[in-house]
Amino acid sequence: MATTGAPRVYKNFIDGEWVDARGGKAYENRNPANTDELLGMFPASTEEDVSAAVDAAKEAYKKWRLVPAPKRAEMLFRAAELLVRRKEQYSKDMTREMGKVLAEARGDVQEAIDMTYYMAGEGRRLFGQTTPSELPNKFAMSLRQPIGVCGMITPWNFPMAIPSWKMMPALICGNTVVLKPGEDTPLSSYHLMETLTEAGVPHGVVNLVSGDGPNAGAALTKHADVPVISFTGSCATGRRIAEACAPEFKHYSLEMGGKNIIIVMDDANLDLAVDGAIWGGFGTTGQRCTAASRVAVHKAVYKEFVERFVERAKALKAGDGLDSGTDMGPCINERQLKKVMEYVEIGKNEGAKLLTGGKRLEGGGYAKGWFHEATIFGECSPQMRIAQEEIFGPVVSVMAIGSLEEALEVANGVVYGLSASIYTRNVNRAFTATRDLYTGIVYINAPTIGAETHLPFGGTKQTGNGHREAAIAAIDFFTEWKTVYVDYSDRLQRAQIDNA
Ligand code: NAD
Question: What is the architecture of the domain spanning 12-256+464-483?
Answer without folding.
Answer: 3-Layer(aba) Sandwich (3.40)
